[in-house]
Design goal:
With 81 residues, the protein is mainly alpha-helical. Helix content is 67%, strand content 0%. One of its GO terms (biological process) is intraciliary transport.
Length: 81
């Protein structure tokens, strides 16, 4: 796992996350979100997508509970105050 470039973070903050109301199938939405976060999908089956989502959510959980993330959030809130 490696940190995103600052430009990626800025773009996501400006553009936002793809809304759930986008006109596509659930499989296409999973492909889009996993592609956005560079999470590979092993194949084209439902099980492959479920495994990719599990990896995505596991990574999200690891990042949210990491000490580095907490320190960065604190730095941002201190700089905004």
């Amino acid at each position: 796992m490696e940190e995103w470039p600052e430009s990626m973070e800025e773009t996501l903050n400006e553009v936002g996350f793809p809304p759930g109301t986008i006109d596509c199938t659930l499989s296409q939405y999973v492909d889009l979100v996993c592609g956005l976060f560079d999470v590979p999908i092993a194949g084209d089956t439902l099980n492959d997508r479920i495994q990719a989502l599990h990896l995505l959510f596991s990574l999200y959980s690891a990042v949210k509970t990491s000490q580095l993330y907490a320190e960065r959030q604190k730095e941002r809130s201190d700089s905004n105050a």
